[in-house]
Design a protein that fits this description.
Chains A, B: Residues 75-185 form the 3-dehydroquinate synthase N-terminal domain. Chains A, B: Residues 187-329 form the 3-dehydroquinate synthase C-terminal domain. 2 copies of one chain form a homodimer. Chain A is α/β, with parallel strands linked by helices. Chain A has 2 domains: 4-178, Rossmann fold; 181-364, Up-down Bundle (Dehydroquinate synthase-like, alpha domain), CATH 1.20.1090.10. Chain A is 46% helix and 20% strand. The first copy, chain A, contains 15 helices and 12 strands. The first copy, chain A, has helices spanning 28-34, 49-52, 55-66, 85-97, 112-124, 140-143, 181-198, 200-208, 210-214, 218-238, 253-263, 270-287, 292-304, 317-325, 354-364; strands at 4-9, 16-21, 43-48, 71-76, 105-110, 130-135, 148-153, 156-163, 168-172, 330-331, 334-342, 345-353. In chain A, strands 1-2-9-6-5-3-4 form a 7-stranded mixed sheet, sandwiched between helices. Chain A is globular, with a radius of gyration of 20 Å. Chains A and B meet through helix 4, strand 7 and strand 8 of A and helix 4, strand 7 and strand 8 of B.
Chain lengths: 368, 368
């Protein structure tokens, strides 16, 4: 079935494989059958307008039909605004009209937005039906592991959701070839993050292979996604319901989320904001006693894959601090930060003072 | 803490107790503390307009406040129409405004509608927070066991939902004293059903104690709810995710649901429709070889608790048959029925012919 890597996310009864390789969409029919997905019950593919105009949707539909499945597709607008209860309800309507039953499967073909949205439909339709992810972005490697699915509420992101593990993830590297360069780099941010929290060797590898990654070299990308998913899977397997350990996945996210909120979503892409946030966390680490190298290596490897490491000067420090105070991780004057104590190793620090964070934010604006 | 019965629903890590007795609302604060519900995170009570005007809400709010909890309440319109995504979204808004966090608890004070709705909010808010049920109807004894929570879609009832087990159920019998007589009888329908599928002795007990039950005698009611919950808990514990066994809980529901749909909801209460449906299932059983007594006892005990056993003649047989064909249990000309083979024992029959069912429907209109 062609060359590919397979990773199993270990979650007891709910364990599932992630297949990573070129052309996996063309094997979808066979994979579905191998995984016991019944062709007696209709399948619904959920995707967005950007993906739908490419060949991926047509390929996926036709290969599943050839394998004997009844397939319908629902196309939602591209972008975060589709993660709403209104679009969710439309998808349930379409699922009902297409006759989806308890043994049906919903397939998410797209990036994180489509995965989160379609996953929440799968989690709640008839109290939960099967779900398959076919990610088409690098960033989606992150959301394809962990089972978190959700939609937004006007007052809060991802506030309505569930934990719902997919049956499998089909990561077809050929879908990534059409990504815009800025999206590629932003996606690599979470890949590098997985190295920084867990695997120093992989961080060194990212540095050495940065050019190949940015050029979307299939072999390099396959390896990087495999490693990124592996780290996330290891963390999630130990802590499925997000207690302590899972928090380490938030490296760079406290500052990063605040930057996204202040800059406006889409101004600063998620991966870009997290990159700056990780540099901030590394600066913080050094102030708290970590070796200087934690900061220099973090900054270096992120620059190498083309990510910003400097906080745009025009973003107001007060607004950034305010945004952080709305973060769930902020409590009574002290903040919780994921702090790298070495490359590949982080700690959770619950007592970082707000004034120290303000200092870091100012310094990030001076970053060379 | 006063006299009460306790039943534990055995579901491994998610096991929970059902407390049944007079005045349990007044002990809610203490129970919450015993169950490790944190007073650091706000609690939200969800109830409906009918319950809110009674003293139960005030009692529950004040006892929880006295115990140190931060409490807010959300009141939804009474009736099935509140089980919508729109009301669900309003409740999420209120939860956000009240500052509910991951360690918060949502309390459902009311009947099945409030339990289903508030339960789905608890299941999906921040991907799942704690949930406590305080049922105020007899019928809710049924939905308080099993963890099924849901809202409706315009095209289908209960289609959007989850399995979310409560931390505990506080069944305060004093809340039942204000129920209208018709609601009382309709609620007893599911109580008797639990006897008919599982426990012949309890069916005999219902017959002997029918007058005390209809008079809302606290001791009789407490025992009946305890037995009803016990049967459901036994079935659910063996089959949490609704595979085969759980289907037996649908005794009377194939015909019953069709009657509700044709008569119009609220014309025929759920319990009334199920009562007629159970008589139909018993008639069917006898035709399939069960002893005549299955039919006579079923009909007798349902009549004794004041429930209808005859199908209203004005309901069109064709429409009833059509409604049944939309039922999930209908497949290609043959239907699935839960058939009592003896009092206290049922079987699942997947090959009941539609023509035999039509015969039964006609006969149910002639019922003496």
């Amino acid at each position: 079935m062609g060359e590919h890597r397979t990773l199993t996310v270990q979650l007891g009864e709910r364990s599932y494989p992630i297949y990573i390789g070129e052309g996996l969409i063309d094997q979808a029919g066979q994979r579905f059958i191998e995984h016991g997905i019944s062709s007696k019950s209709p399948i619904m593919i959920v995707t967005d307008e950007h993906v739908a105009v490419q060949q991926h949707l047509v390929r996926l539909e036709s290969v599943l039909k050839q394998a004997g499945f009844t397939v319908s597709s629902a196309v939602v607008p591209a972008g975060e605004t589709s993660k709403s209860l209104a679009v969710f309800e439309e998808l349930v309507t379409k699922a009902l009209q297409a006759g989806l039953d308890r043994k049906s499967t919903i397939v998410a073909l797209g990036g994180g937005v489509v995965g989160d949205l379609a996953g929440f439909v799968a989690a709640s339709y008839m109290r939960g039906i099967r779900f398959v992810q076919v990610p088409t972005t690098i960033l989606a490697h992150d959301s394809s592991v962990g089972g978190k699915v959700a939609v937004n509420h006007p007052l809060a992101k991802n506030i309505i959701g569930a934990f719902h593990q997919p049956e499998m993830v089909l990561y077809d590297l050929s879908t990534l070839q059409t990504l815009p360069q800025r999206q590629v780099r932003a996606g690599l941010s979470e890949v590098v993050k997985h190295g920084l929290i867990w695997d120093a060797e992989f961080v060194a590898w990212c540095d050495e292979n940065a050019d190949r990654l940015q050029a979307l070299d299939s072999d390099a990308l396959g390896y990087a996604l495999f490693k990124g998913c592996s780290v996330k899977a290891a963390v999630v397997s130990k802590d499925e319901r997000e207690n302590d350990l899972r928090a380490i996945l938030n490296l760079g996210h406290t500052i990063g989320h605040a930057l996204e909120a202040v800059a406006g979503y889409n101004q600063l892409l998620h991966g870009e904001a997290i990159s700056i946030g990780m540099v901030g966390a590394a600066r913080l680490a050094v102030k708290l006693g970590a070796p200087e190298q934690v900061y220099t290596v973090t900054k270096h490897v992120l620059s190498r894959v083309g990510l910003p490491v400097r906080l745009p000067e025009e973003l107001d420090t007060d607004l950034i601090m305010d945004a952080m105070k709305h973060d769930k991780k902020f409590q009574e004057g002290s903040m919780t930060f994921i702090v790298p104590v070495a490359i590949g190793e982080v700690e959770i620090n619950h007592t970082v003072s707000a004034s120290l964070v303000r200092e870091i934010v100012e310094e990030l604006k001076q970053e060379a």
